[in-house]
Amino acid sequence: MAGNLTECVESKISACLRNVNTQRMAEIDPELEREFLERMDYKQFEILIPSFILVVAMMFIGIPGNVITVCVYKRKMRRTASRVFILALAFVDLANCLFTMPIEVSIIVKFVTFDYPIICSVCRTSTYILNGVSALLLCGIAVDRFRKICRPLKPVFTPKKTRSICIVATLIGIAFYIPGFIIYGTRTVLLPYSGGNITYTVEGHTCQIKDEYKDSKIKSIILAVWFLGTLVLLVALIVMYARIGCAVNKRLKLEKARHQSVSIATRSERKKKVVQEVSETSCSFDDPDESSDRKKREKPEVLKSMSLPLRKKIGRSLIENIRMSAPPLYAVNKDKIPGRIRAGRTTMMLFSVTIAYVMSFIPFIIVVVIRTMRPHQYHELTDVQKSLWNFFLRSYVFNCAVNPILYGFFNKDFRKKMMEWLKELVCC
């Protein structure tokens, strides 16, 4: 009986305490709560400063770079399949720089007070869609390069077909990542606040997966499928460019061997032709081994018997024959070499764009894998480690700004056309 009475009293006391705490929590000053949330925003911003600098820098580099790329390739460059792919990539990167990056900056600045679920959902899903479309476009570029180099007898992509590939890639990207509109929004963050002898719990909001999907199986399945799709695309890119690299290396060796054999044959033919011309102009049809001494005696006499204009004419004829004795293959190759160099530079440029994409996504993928396998790992990190964690989580933004730099570095024609376009822009 006494035990039951004690339990009843304890339960009533606990209920009273809960009521007091609830009342106290309800009576917290809104101004005090707002100041506390602002302090928490500032504290999180100190951790996210490297991420803030990264996103802002890539945004200010990527916007003018991609605008220049679009204008130059649209107005100045030849209509090829590569041009269509590059324009599509530039439009995707520009959309990232103009739309998703500014929202990402707002999320970083107001990390625990970002209570805009629709904006958060659109931003996160759009980031996935745009980066997924970029990966699909890079796969299309890899297939185009592979067919040109490893399957040269098959039909190449035309600009019209390439535009269709870009449209299909965009539709696939939207369909694949559209579940992000469902699972992403604002998540409630509970922040402890000490006010006197009582600890309050203040609610903040951040842009992540919604509360209702935080521990759901649907969220896990969707993220797993997305991660698997990203890995498949990255592996496909690596495999195709590895095969392209092997084919290019093999072709370079064959070209080098053929060039050496042609050079040897050329020197041999040149010597024969010069000897024949000399023998004809000296009016000697004797065997050189049998009458070398006689030729040495007769040659000056023969030359002396000729007039000065005739001797000059013979000299010019000898020089012309020596020059023309080079093989006709040289003249053919001279016309073809620039095209080959351009094709090689285009392949290297697009390969470097693919490498930049892969390298910018590797840190992001590593962090996502760790976060999935160990969900509570982040809370065990120091502030410096958290700063690096968030920096690598946003490493994908490198890809949006570095592509125009690679176009200018590898493509001499792009640099030339860009200067022409800038001069026209300034003059107007």
Any overview of this molecule?
The structure is a single chain. This protein is mainly alpha-helical and 428 residues long. The protein has a domain at 28-225 and 343-427: Rhodopsin 7-helix transmembrane proteins (Rhopdopsin 7-helix transmembrane proteins, Up-down Bundle). Helices cover 79% and strands 6% of the residues. It has 14 helices and 2 strands. It has helices spanning 2-26, 30-47, 49-75, 81-109, 117-150, 159-177, 180-183, 217-281, 292-305, 308-324, 328-373, 383-393, 398-410, 412-427, and strands at residues 184-195, 198-209. A two-stranded antiparallel ribbon has the order 1-2. It is elongated. 24% of the residues are buried.
Let me know the largest β-sheet.
Answer: 2 strands, antiparallel
Classify the secondary structure makeup into a structural class. Answer: mainly alpha
> What is the strand arrangement across the widest sheet?
1-2
Instruction: Name the CATH class of the domain at 28-225 and 343-427.
Output: Mainly Alpha
Stretches with pLDDT under 50, minimum 5 residues: 1-26, 277-299, 322-343
Average pLDDT, to the nearest integer? 76
**What is the H-and-E element order?**
HHHHHHHEEHHHHHHH
Q: What is the level-2 CATH architecture name of the domain at 28-225 and 343-427? A: Up-down Bundle
What overall form do the CA principal axes indicate? elongated
Number of helices: 14
Radius of gyration: 36 Å
Give the CATH H-level superfamily of the domain at 28-225 and 343-427: Rhodopsin 7-helix transmembrane proteins
Fraction of residues in helix: over 70%
What oligomeric state best describes the polypeptide chains here?
A: single chain
What name does the CATH topology of the domain at 28-225 and 343-427 carry? Rhopdopsin 7-helix transmembrane proteins
Strand content: 5-15%
Query: What is the distance, rounded to the nearest whole angstrom, between the alpha carbons of the first and last residues?
Result: 98 Å
Number of strands: 2
